[in-house]
């Protein structure tokens, strides 16, 4: 039994517009940082969504830290909010009508942890400071730079103290200079937080920086583990 990382084995068939796509995912991981990489269209985002609870597999098991989150044979499918993961979407999915502070606070009010108001405010201030977002705390996402948007989304994912972080191409929306800087910043931050990370990317540099364990995904299957 792997009681610290992911134990994943599931199947999902998606059908749409005369095409179909099959995901048949099997891996287990104990490394603090795992990268799933592979070409565009390989199924990386769908795989991460299934682990997060945003996509329901047809069958199989998804276990984290020894706890089953999905088990088709037992009729178990925990909803996303009960899985305790922080999730960073490829386009960050910030709420456009909320400012930076409100975006970060959102997960605290709605989340599993539901802390008292004072603790929630302290946590938001902590993350504003940690990511140097105080000067833009009152701005809406459309008024932010790419890097500020990414840091806001990361702060929102981290504020509820998730037990693991799921990152979908965290640097893809950034220009190359900023991408390198934020990659370094995030790697250092994650070292300090000691929180398990599952990251998907098709960028070789992400693989080098984050890929303690590397899983190559092709056509819906993990074909290489390194
Ligand atoms: N609802 C759906 N119905 C049918 N096929 C789908 C559906 N959603 C995604 N797909 C297909 O599944 C495949 C995998 O998509 P996915 O977004 O997971 O790829 P990816 O590896 O994350 O790609 P990228 O690196 O470009 O983001 C694609 O071919 C996509 O067209």
UniProtKB/TrEMBL annotation:
One of its GO terms (molecular function) is ATP binding. Residues 5-226 form the ABC transporter domain. Keywords: ATP-binding, Cell membrane, Membrane, Nucleotide-binding, Transport. SUPFAM superfamilies: P-loop containing nucleoside triphosphate hydrolases. Pfam families: ABC_tran. InterPro entries: AAA+_ATPase (IPR003593), ABC_SmlMolc_Importer (IPR050093), ABC_transporter-like_ATP-bd (IPR003439), P-loop_NTPase (IPR027417). This is ATP-binding cassette domain-containing protein. It comes from Roseateles aquae.
């Amino acid at each position: 039994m792997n009681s610290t990382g992911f134990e994943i084995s599931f199947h999902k068939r998606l059908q749409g517009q005369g095409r179909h796509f099959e995901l048949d995912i099997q891996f287990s991981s104990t490394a603090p940082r795992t990268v799933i990489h592979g070409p565009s269209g390989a199924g990386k985002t769908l795989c991460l969504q299934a682990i997060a609870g945003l996509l329901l597999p047809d069958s199989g098991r998804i276990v984290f830290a020894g706890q089953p989150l999905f088990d088709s044979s037992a009729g178990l499918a925990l909803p996303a909010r009960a899985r305790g993961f922080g999730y960073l979407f490829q386009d960050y999915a910030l709420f456009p009508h909320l400012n930076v502070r409100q975006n970060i606070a959102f997960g605290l009010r709605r989340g599993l942890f539901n802390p008292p108001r004072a603790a929630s405010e302290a946590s938001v201030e902590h993350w504003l400071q940690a990511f140097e977002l105080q000067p833009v705390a009152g701005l809406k996402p459309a008024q932010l730079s790419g890097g500020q948007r990414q840091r806001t989304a990361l702060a929102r994912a981290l504020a509820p103290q998730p037990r693991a972080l799921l990152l979908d191409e965290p640097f893809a929306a950034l220009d190359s200079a900023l991408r390198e800087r934020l990659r370094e910043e995030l790697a250092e931050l994650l070292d300090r937080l000691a929180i398990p990370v599952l990251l998907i990317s098709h960028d070789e540099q992400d693989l080098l920086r984050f890929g303690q364990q590397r899983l190559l995904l092709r056509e819906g299957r993990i074909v290489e583990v390194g």
